[in-house]
Write a structure and sequence with these properties.
This protein is about 60% helix and about 10% strand. It is built from eight helices and six strands. It has a six-stranded antiparallel β-sheet with strand order 1-2-5-6-4-3, sandwiched between helices. It is globular, with a radius of gyration of 22 Å.
Length: about 260
């Protein structure tokens, strides 16, 4: 069952790549007149809707896979506890307990990977779903800040690169005593599927209105580091609120001032 589900997920991803490639190709400037321009815009809108729908289908398959992996983890955890008791009773060897412990660690890893992928997808859906809203916003001058009910933008003038991520992580760890919850550092498979150029950006799984989120945004502004903070998930995404550190994707937001 899990193999069949994985095949469906892979098939959805393959279709998604096809739709994403076509959508990007249609975004390239082409000479057109009158009804051709209108037709092109309609086709592009349809393509974007299909891309989002394919991601949702893939996510639904991943959620089913997560449920299977969680059931496996519970079953393997029970076996592990049984093996421990049997070992203490002298009924089995230590190697059998270690094998059960290894199996449990692998099961836990699969669940964690599923959850990370789903969260990454929710965030990508939010950025993709709010693309048009971003494009409608006015350009930001260097050092300017803008805030709305859904977005917070800062076009910092610092020479930002992923090499500076360590400074942000250190600040957060020293301030809150825990690791910065990075959901995407640089380019990921999800960004590839969406044709987002995320190579010089990172996403942080914090709500911008939370205490931690507000503290982080204050640090970024003082440091001149650009960001876009998403207050809410896009339609169809459940947990998309996050902070995107770095310039917007030039492929997806190239008309946005902060992305130039």
């Amino acid at each position: 069952m899990k193999q069949a589900l994985m095949k469906r997920i892979i098939a959805s991803v393959a279709l998604l790549l096809l739709f994403s490639h076509t959508a990007v190709a249609q975004e390239r400037p082409k000479p057109s007149r009158g009804h051709r321009t209108v037709s092109s815009n309609i086709d592009l809108g349809r393509m974007r809707a299909e891309v989002i729908e394919k991601i949702k289908e893939t996510r639904a398959g991943a959620e089913k896979l997560l449920a299977l992996h969680e059931a496996d983890r519970a079953r393997i955890a029970e076996i592990y506890e049984q093996r421990r008791e049997q070992y203490y009773m002298g009924l089995i060897s230590r190697s059998e307990v270690l094998q059960a412990e290894h199996d449990l660690a692998q099961a836990m890893l699969r669940v964690d990977q599923d959850k990370r992928w789903l969260h990454e997808t929710e965030i990508a859906l939010t950025e993709y779903g709010m693309r048009d809203e971003l494009l409608r916003l006015p350009n930001l001058a260097t050092g300017a800040y803008s805030e709305s009910t859904t977005l917070l933008r800062f076009n910092g003038g610092a020479a930002w690169s992923l090499g500076d991520a360590g400074k942000i992580e250190s600040f957060f760890a020293q301030t809150f005593g825990r690791a910065l919850p990075i959901s995407a550092l640089g380019q990921t498979a999800t960004h590839d599927r969406l044709r987002f150029d995320h190579r010089n950006a990172m996403d942080v799984a914090l709500h911008p209105d939370s205490r931690e989120g507000q503290t982080l945004l204050g640090y970024l502004r003082r440091s001149g580091i650009p960001f876009i903070a998403f207050r809410s998930a896009a339609p169809g995404a459940a947990t998309g609120a996050h902070i995107h550190i770095g310039k917007p994707s030039p492929r997806s937001y190239r008309e946005l001032g902060a992305g130039r």
